[in-house]
Amino acid sequence: MKKSVVGMLALTAMAAAMGSAFAQEAAKAAPAMTAAEKEQAKKIYFERCAGCHGVLRKGATGKNLEPHWSKKDKDGNVTEGGTLKLGQQRLEKIIGYGTDGGMVNFDDILTKEEITLMSKYIQNTPDVPPEYSFKDTMDSWKVIVPVDQRPKKQMNNFNLNNMFSVTLRDTGEVALIDGDTKEIRSIVKTGYAVHISRLSASGRYVYVIGRDGRLSLIDLWMEKPAVVAEVKIGFDARSVDTSKFKGFEDKYAVAGSYWPPQFVIMDGDTLKPRKVVSTRGMTVDGEYHPEPRVASIVASFIKPEWVINIKETGQILLVDYSDIENLKTTTVGSAKFLHDGGWDASKRYFLVAANASNKIAAVDTKTGKLAALVDTAKIPHPGRGANFVHPKFGPVWATGHLGADVVTLISTPSDDKKYAKYKEYNWKVVQEMKHVPGNLFVKTHPKSKHFWADAPQNPDKDLAESVAVWDMADLSKPKAILNVAKDSGLPPTKAVKRAVHPEYSADGKEVWISLWGGKTDQSAVVVYDDATLKVKKVITDPKMITPTGKFNVYNTQHDIY
Ligand code: DHE
């Protein structure tokens, strides 16, 4: 019998033996479901809900969804109840129409029957999924093209620096689009609902992680770039990066898993698993957490180190990969729940959103210490953030917010003498630029005068389909609003075409925006001229379905944002 199955049976037996009063009470009071209904609901929960609420439903970006959970005020009065207290009707409304707290409406994603089903399911006690061992990872590993059979030099004439890896979310693919000609050069099959693409230090390999934990390695040197190796690092995953320090270029990859909560270190050119490290442990408040998921990962350029952000514990791990057999890790406590983030302009400080605390944590990778915890508006969501020199406050790093109508600018330190006069502002919020809630990503480029922000999670259709652009030389000037869906010229569809994830071309002259439309609708990536804000090209194709994240090779390889 497989170890993971034994683990699951042991857990089930343990729960039964303990006869947990909660579990029994929940099982009694929760709506009955057939085994087939449970299976269907489990799949939907994994695909649509687990990302925000957690597999064990303990909550993170989303609320706790355990049947008997409760929140009490200081006098011990229950102020919020679990799903059983909320009950069937209220849950159906929340799932269907969303909430002011940032939960999106699912009435255009799930059918009425599915909403009823999910409302029943979350009143039942969560199942504990199986573990996933080093052996499971090893068993899933496939080298499709061995290293000695790969090209010795670039076999195509594409300008690889300006290639874009574009997530086609609902088809489980990425499109490799030539940034110069705007032609789709290759569409490769990947894991389910790919989350991000990252580059090897040399820029040759693209690493693509699916939500189902499948990591695919694409070789851009092939005549037609294709997947050369694959491995499944867990059941549920979001992050991947590579070794970028001098002497370790293209040597390792590291991928973070949501379930089980762990990260896996692999050989960079084959994805051969080398080590699995669990992230279970204590939160910054000193409580044990059984599901501390791996959120963003970034590779340092100044040390052989990865910054690995653990969502539920609020611990930032600085993992030294110079000797992976004897792995050294510095654990830096910050705040909960860590999500996405990026480098400051100097690439010494990594700034990460602690979205449940409404804070940005900055870690100093030179000293290995927390540099600052900065209070911000509600639910910061930076993507990787954006760096520019503010006319009044000097170097700043910017984050947008899911839960507030501003973009926050935080002053960041610099060793450059010309910025010494801005020192007094360091780690302070120096400005909040007026935007709208529901923002996910902000972007600028060292060669640009403009700053871009989307708002795909805004409940208003026009706002969700538009992006805002500021002139960084004079932020008091009214921002330009570009309705990307209208600019695309695509026919109207029932589903909102959410304008998402601005990404610059390698030369900083174009900005690419995805239109994240319905599950089966042909959609597009709209390319704007950054100087004139006019549409330059609408990249569309019958295969262009649910494009979301886009990763320009050069900018991703060098962390330019
Ligand atoms: Fe993301 C980055 C997690 C939903 C598009 N997303 C990240 C990162 C994490 C994360 C941890 C940082 C990776 C890194 O840098 O190493 N995302 C999650 C979730 O848990 C969440 C909230 C729910 C889920 O079920 O996945 C979620 N994300 C979404 C989406 O619905 C988005 C908008 C569309 C999609 O494709 O699924 C989406 N997330 C992205 C993108 C990035 C990202 C495009 C990379 C931004 C960048 O510029 O690096």
Offer a quick outline of the entry:
With 561 residues, this protein is an alpha+beta fold.
Largest sheet: 5 strands, antiparallel
**Distance between the ends:** 48 Å
CATH architectural label of the domain at 23-121: Orthogonal Bundle
Which hetero ligands occur in this complex? heme D
- Overall pLDDT metric: 94
Task: Describe it.
The relative contact order is 0.09. This protein has a domain at 23-121: Cytochrome c-like domain (Cytochrome Bc1 Complex, Chain D, domain 2). The strands form ten sheets. A five-stranded antiparallel β-sheet has the order 3-10-9-8-7. It starts with a helix and ends with a helix. By secondary structure, the chain is an alpha+beta fold. It is built from nine helices and 37 strands. Helix 3 (35-53) crosses helix 5 and helix 4 runs antiparallel to helix 5. 16% of the residues lie in helices and 39% in strands. Heme D (DHE) binds next to helix 3, strand 11, strand 17, strand 21 and strand 25. The site of heme D has 22 residues, from helix 3, strand 11, strand 17, strand 21 and strand 25.
